[in-house]
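Review form for a predicted model. The reviewer records the input and the model, then writes brief findings.
Reviewer: anonymous (R2)
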Amino acid sequence: MGSKRASRSRNWAARQNRDPYVKKARESDYRSRAAFKLQQLDEKERLLRAGMSVVDLGAAPGSWSQYAAAKVGSTGIVVAVDRLDMGKISGVTGIKGDFLEDAVVKELSEALGERPADLVISDLAPNITGISSVDQAAMEDLMLAAVRFALGHLGPKGVFIGKFFEGEQADALRHKVEKIFAVVRVRKPNASRAKSAEAYLVARQPVAVGEVCVS
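Model under review:
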């Protein structure tokens, strides 16, 4: 068992050393290579601008928040939420806790100054089992939880970005989100690893909360 674990660790380390985005993240002082996924989504969709209010769900280790903070500047607000301790990030208000908990939602609303969010971003993913149907179901639960949160905090022209896994259940999930937002597009950044099933929904302009049921 120990040899298998050691082999996986060596393979992971070798992959990291070969990965150009890992090298770029180190050079750019990003906490992880994931920053380039958001950068590429931003370049395609023109998501971020100075003065925006942004909420980053499941933010740890914090590279999406780093990128967002640099884009919104000193006039903007970035609030990062995660159950894990991320440590301080310049220009970011960090909240440790579950975004589904009332106390965390209250703290987050106070951090936003009671103003609606312009952008809610979620790179959340479940613990992977390797069983596609199980992982997709868990991913859908996370995505819909993030959507429910977004509906409660986005303004009428707000944008939501959420990760999902491509597969048999992906179309049904996309159709649910399409009922909630006026415009929904699927994006897969080049920084996502080729073998990864991950992709992102970019959803704009939520409909009135009372008109929909997210489940």
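Findings: The CA atoms of residues 55 and 120 lie 5 Å apart.
Further findings: The radius of gyration is 17 Å.
Recommendation: see findings above.
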